[in-house]
Amino acid sequence: MICSYCGTEGLEDICSFCGANLNIKRPKLKEFVVFEDVEKPFNELSCFHTYDLLVLLRLVRKERTKAYDLMLTLRKAAKSPQIDKVM
Q1: pTM above 0.85?
Q2: Which residues are CB-contacts of 3 (< 8 A; sequence separation ≥ 6)?
Q3: What tens digit of pLDDT does each residue of 49-74 get?
Q4: Residues contacting residue 6 through CB under 8 Å, at least 6 positions apart
């Protein structure tokens, strides 16, 4: 058997190089991943394929960037001069 993680050949149950259990079923790609999957606990996320986790990470980073940009906009708005409506 060939280790699907590191490529070491001639193995049976556990890889002698990386220590991976070769009898565990590897996760499959999902058709789509939604932002709400971020809220799942670690036990469920550990069953996701690596590519799906990378897509989730991209979604989280995009949301974080939006929140940061909004915070900067609010901070700039607080420092700008106020115009009185009477004038």
Answers
A1: no
A2: 9, 11, 15, 17, 18, 20, 22
A3: 989 999 999 999 999 999 999 999 98
A4: 15, 17, 18, 20
